[in-house]
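#struct-pred
JK: can someone run the complex with zinc ion? inputs below
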Amino acid sequence: MKDFQFCRQCLYSSDHPLGITFDETGLCSGCIVHEEKDKLDWEHRWNLLVDLVKDYKGKNKKNYDCIVPVSGSQDSYYIMHIVTEKLGLNPLVVAYNKYFNTRIGIHNLSNLRIKFNCDILFQNVNPFLVKKITRQSLIDFGSIYWPILAGHTAFPVQTAVRFKIPLIIWGAHQGMEQVGMFSHEHEVEMTRRYRKDHDLMGIEADDLVQVSNFLNEEDIWQYRYPDSFDIESIGIRGIYLGNYLRWDPKAQHEKMIKLYNYRSTKFNRTFDTYDYVDCYNYMNLHDLIKLYKHGFSKVTDHASREIRFKRLSRLAAINLVKNYELNPVEHLNLFQTWLGIKDKSLDFILNQFRNKKYWDFNDDQDKWLFSGLSTKMLHNESQNDSNTHISFTSTDDFSLKKQDKYITFGKGWY
Ligand SMILES: [Zn+2]
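RT: done, structure tokens with the ligand placed:
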């Protein structure tokens, strides 16, 4: 029996942390569900969404029809475009402050507020506390992003409870987009279970307190998902637009740049210029940790997505992955200053999380050698190699200026 397998089309393997399956031809579940994008009747699916939201219009006395979680990047503009312009809803926009904010992220968020003219609620958890939790999650399970993921997924639901707004609208479902965990037609919705198992790596806020010597209950309550009783009595549900629209992040971002002046930038570790431009660390330190733990990094996600959209050949995608994934991490000094951690301590912690399946320590050379997924990727000669070039627009220069640092709170500027 084969215990390890690559998809015959995209670059994912049976080692994908979200779980993946293969059909008898060797096509992965992610690619199979992606094919639905070209088969489903999207007009019909759009009408299902229009019908669904009809029930929520004007339901809340404060005149908010729904909640839309946003950030200064990702799919925020597109979600807002659909919710306000296409569905005619009046959302309460909510944003969890991740504190690793870039100038572009601050611009994008303030510009979003102005262009869509909506009320926006920010959650600024005490920055000292955030550092404390980040230090803990870094040491315990090698994550600098746990508080951000926990905050971004808890705050909208807490707000839904507080304002009694039963509908939350998200963009795409990551488990569906990457590994085809569900079909579009399942119309999967937000759950406490998925959040814990996949967004939060199986660690809830309360688990963090149990393993920690430094954190108490009062430190983590902002990261708690609301009680099931509250959620059920208000009838809160979170839907994903990706179930009702043919989701294409590249095309969507390019449209948002034209329509609303969304800003994008080049990164050192991937070719996609649209994702996570609001954060100094996501495409850098966070991405390096992904490579340490899982043997692949974000560039493999981007390349696999572009193969599926037939904008990139498999060979060109493999080359892109190899060109980017071992590139240096930028802005690490900012993170070390922010957390108060020295090179050696950080290296020591990070090395604990290198998966020995993908990393070998070479005593002679006194360094770690990468034996991750891209070193095993094979190219089938018979496959079509016409799409070798892919173009992503970058509107800004993300390179570190001397005076640049994390913007804890930013109002935006023009
Ligand atoms: Zn695949």
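RT: quick notes.
The radius of gyration is 21 Å.
DSSP finds 17 helices and seven strands in the chain.
JK: thanks, will look after standup
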